[in-house]
Design goal:
The chain contains 10 helices and 38 strands. By secondary structure, the chain is mainly beta. The protein has 4 domains: 186 residues, no CATH class; 188 residues, D-amino Acid Aminotransferase, Chain A, domain 1 (2-Layer Sandwich); 88 residues, Beta Barrel (OB fold (Dihydrolipoamide Acetyltransferase, E2P)), CATH 2.40.50; 101 residues, no CATH class.
């Protein structure tokens, strides 16, 4: 397939500062001029050359192509108006990824000699705003259609027209620049095609910090003055006092961190000794452009591939310089923190959010939106605000913070690891306070983890027995934050939390099951004959007998869960179950041939145990 040529236009970035020595070092290293250049020899300016927004041609450089552009653009020439009948006026020597105006940009630094003819005129025209826009010339071979993913030259879709996609939604067509092979040049031009171009008076840049093993790493402080409040894990809003007032915010898969501005220096603390590659993180921090002062901000670091949030596991790989799906990172700010060394008392949550807004200024999009709601309104607000991960909730009276995850997730730490046939057996424990840990039943998985790894386990339910959490249907969901800011499971496990009644199912040898109900209303055991889980799900009714079974004659364990709600309208038992069985189920008495028997079946979706629902016959 033939190569394609593209030209995209953007804006110039002006600056009046003296050229930093580190930037000059990069210039010499990347360009290798015959004679080394000093800061006094050159003028340096920068271009916001391309973004991930759709340009006026209907094309887009997706974020996952920006890393390639950073490499290809180095040592390319700068021209005027793409004219190749004259020599370059400058040369590109460095590029980085930045965020500006809600878009992701490739920012390119270029230089020209002060002694060159017209050098002063070029500087004056750029700094005076006469030369404002720029363009890139490049070679690529695949214009990927945003609607169908095929070559847009052949698929029939046209940029800026709406089409119905495979999922039924209407999408405006555009094309992604794919298989970019070469950057030919950048040019100063009279008019650009990239939306929302602008000038800036800062020539900031990101310099990689080299560690002893010569990889891009940055070590963050182990001690800090600002310590965020613990986050308590909960699964349902009814675990919170309905008489209180709350602030509800979206929760994101990410790593909790503290941004500290002190003595004019901005640093980030993850609550543990952490070595991570610093280039993207430093660029993200610089984009915040926080004002001077001494303060700490409670933040979350989130990894993205394009606009899609990635798992914490992928984010950690990215931060450690390993291969990852994450292509960019973003910070979200949740709260202002007290300085624990000066016995600082913070104002209430609403005043703190106002203060954070003032600190962030034009970057208020980094502040996570929040809704104030009385306890009675929590269920509806949480449903509206939650991300696919869940919601964070703050008690406005006490300042207590809660994370309500969408799935039933428990943050745990790997304490021991044993290799078994087909995988690994893990011994786990979770925080109930900063120092106290509670053990869980072992988890088997093919996934290879390390001792002290912090993970999230998704379960259908759990039962606390003899100070141990017995996990029901556990599955490793993701890595999670394992530092000093690890989430607390006290609200899930504390003795005064009124543990839910449970049911247990045992498999009998003759295709029957034993359903043992340990309810607040009663404790009963039923035998369900010719049982089929798939048929139960399809609302088949099973003939059932109440029996007395000795504790040592249960049969083989089949499943377990919690009884969320139980009612006894008449003689019928209505059970809202969670765990192995999910939904509302009925155990209804009947008489057959003068003998007391029962029907066991699942009620239609939407019927709750709190509704009468079933008519007695």
């Amino acid at each position: 397939m033939e190569n394609l040529f593209g030209k995209i236009k953007a804006s110039l970035d002006e600056n009046d500062r003296t050229n930093p020595a580190d930037l000059i070092n990069i210039l010499n290293n990347n360009i290798s001029p015959p004679e080394k250049i000093s800061a006094n020899d050159v003028y340096i300016r920068a271009m916001y050359i391309v973004s991930d927004a759709i340009n006026s041609y209907g094309g887009c450089f997706p974020v996952d192509e920006h890393e390639l552009l950073l490499k290809l653009i180095i040592d390319s020439p700068v021209l005027i108006g793409h004219r190749k009948d004259s020599l370059p006026i400058a040369r590109n020597f460095y590029a980085e990824r930045v965020q500006k105006g809600g878009a992701n940009w490739v920012k390119v630094y270029f230089y020209w000699l002060k002694s060159a003819e017209g050098a002063e005129s070029l500087k004056n025209n750029i700094d005076g705003g006469i030369y404002k826009e720029c363009s890139i010339s490049f070679v690529f071979s695949f214009p990927e259609c945003s609607v169908c993913g095929d070559d847009i030259r052949r698929c029939g879709h046209r940029p800026f027209k709406e089409y119905q996609a495979a999922d039924g939604a209407k999408k405006e067509a555009y094309f992604n620049y794919r298989r970019i092979e070469k950057i030919l040049e950048t040019s100063i031009v009279y008019r650009g095609s990239v939306h929302d171009t602008s000038l800036t008076n800062e020539l900031y840049f990101t310099i990689p910090v080299q560690s002893e093993n010569n990889s891009e790493q940055c070590k963050f402080p182990a001690e800090q003055n600002y310590k965020p409040a613990p986050i308590y894990r909960i699964w349902k809003t009814k675990q919170l006092n309905a008489d209180n007032h709350y602030l509800v915010m979206p929760a994101y898969e990410g790593i909790r961190c503290v941004l500290i501005k002190s003595g004019g220096i901005l640093s980030v603390d993850f609550g543990r000794e952490t070595n991570i590659s610093n280039h993207e993180l430093n660029s993200c921090l610089r984009n915040l452009n926080l004002p001077d002062g001494n303060y700490g901000l409670d933040g979350r670091l989130i990894g993205y591939h394009g606009k899609e949030r990635q798992t914490v596991e992928q984010l950690i790989k990215f931060l450690c310089g390993k291969r990852s799906k994450v292509t960019r990172i973003e910070l979200k700010i949740y709260d202002l923190l007290p300085d624990n060394n000066v016995n600082n008392v913070l104002p209430d949550i609403f005043q703190r959010r106002q203060r954070v807004s003032e600190i962030l200024g034009a970057n208020c999009n980094f502040l996570v939106p929040a809704e104030s709601v009385p306890g009675s309104g929590l269920p509806d607000t949480v449903a509206k605000v939650s991300t696919r991960y869940g919601a964070e909730i703050i008690n406005c009276s006490t300042g207590d913070r809660f994370l309500l995850s969408k799935g039933k997730r428990i943050p745990l730490k790997v304490q021991n690891k044993e290799e078994v046939a087909g995988g690994f057996k893990y011994s786990l424990a979770g925080h109930v306070s900063e120092s106290e840990m509670i053990r869980t039943s072992p988890v088997f998985s093919k996934k290879c983890l390390n001792t002290n790894d912090s993970i999230e386990i998704e379960v259908s339910s759990f039962v606390i027995k003899d100070s141990t959490i017995e996990l029901v249907q556990p599955k490793i969901a993701d890595l999670c934050d394992g530092g000093l800011f690890a989430e607390n499971i006290e609200r899930l496990t504390r003795p005064d939390a009124d543990p839910l009644p449970v049911y247990t199912i045992y498999q009998q040898p003759d295709k029957a099951i034993q359903l043992k109900i340990e309810d607040v209303n009663d404790r009963d055991t039923f035998i369900v004959r010719n049982f089929s889980l798939s048929q139960l799900t399809e609302a088949k009714r099973f003939l059932t007998d109440k029996v007395k079974i000795l504790d040592n004659n249960h049969g083989q364990f089949f499943g377990r869960g919690n009884i969320l709600q139980s009612r006894l309208p008449g003689q019928t038992r209505l059970l809202e179950l969670d765990g192995f069985l999910i939904g509302t189920f009925t155990v209804r008495p009947m008489v057959i041939n003068g003998r007391d028997r029962y029907l066991f079946y699942k009620m239609p979706d939407g019927m709750k145990a709190g509704a009468t629902g079933e008519r007695q016959k």
